[in-house]
Specification:
Length: 428
Amino acid sequence: MRVLLVGSGGREHALACALARSPLLERLDAAPGNPGIATLARCHPVPVSDLEGMTRLAQELAVDLVVVGPEAPLVSGLADRLSEAGIGVFGPSASAARIEGSKAFAKSVMEAAGVPTARFAVCDTVAAAHAAIAEAGGAVVVKADGLAAGKGVVVCSSTEEAHAAVAAALVDDRFGASGRRVLIEERLEGEEVSLLALCDGEHVIPLAPARDYKRVGDGDTGPNTGGMGSISPVPGVDSDMVADIVARVHRPVVNELARRGAPYRGCLYAGLILTAEGPKVIEFNARFGDPETQVILPRTGGDLLALLARAATGTLAGCEVEPAEPACVSVVVAARGYPDAPEVGDPIRGIGDAEEIEGVTVFHAGTAASADGVQTAGGRVVNVTAVGPDFHTARRRAYLGVDAIRIAGAHHRSDIGLAAQNAEHVHV
């Protein structure tokens, strides 16, 4: 098969590595790609926002399947354009991708499907938002309704914090059109888990559970980020719980979207919180998660390309995902100034040294080629990822890899996977 991979981050580099292992793969192209992906695929300078250009590229390359990494082109309708051009695509239509593109839409789907989630109010005025905050007692989560690059969610501990978050969206217009409507949600307590599943419009095949670390600092301190690291599996989330979540969350949502005439074909990401009342959905994403993909795929055996092709053609029935490595830890090395104002253009040294460590792969996330090698080009620069027979080994390898990476002013969390290591209990 000839495959075009859309995207340029760590998630796409992890996908490229998994796709490259497939015996079905004839040729891998990527757009726009990054220096890591370029070691596995031919890269083309087409931005993900150029839907017409991406469709034209897929036609020129005569690809059999386009695998779409990021959410924005899916929400904008890239999968629809490719399908209309007769090109196979792994990724939902725009109507199905609204599950991520609009949090209010996602809530309406969950209500109709009976999926457990937090209580909420949808508000498009400051007065309505303040009323909802008062009713909830101030301890709420304020969410921009649309896409905000992972920065549109504020977990608030007081009325003052909630009012400030509302003002940022509705008054200061910090998120543009995405924030001109906000959700005020009850604040749920518990551990978080991400469960991704491959869907073909009817059938649902879960991948390994994962957990990401959103806050910038150790001990979950500081502002939210796009994710500072991730682990898989998740202690306490066994195969029975995975099956229960799929039955209560993924399948009802896939069925409801099909009922609405928007069959979901792609990766359906459920971000959940394990409350005292059971798992509840925090959010849905319409694609592979980042940085969860970087720990899920190294633990996934078998032929990923075959599964994605089956999902794209509605033929997942009877398929299963083969488990591989027992544990995986991924640590994000971030640029100086991230998440507020990351600096770019700094040289990156030591990637080769890191990858000489047993079990370590360095996924390029925010890098660019330079005359001297590779330099920083984004806030989250690389994902240093390691597999092992247990979390202790995986963590040790990952942090040895982090120590080998040299970027001026870079920073990382030192506690990724620490609680899992201390639990000394790995579920496959």
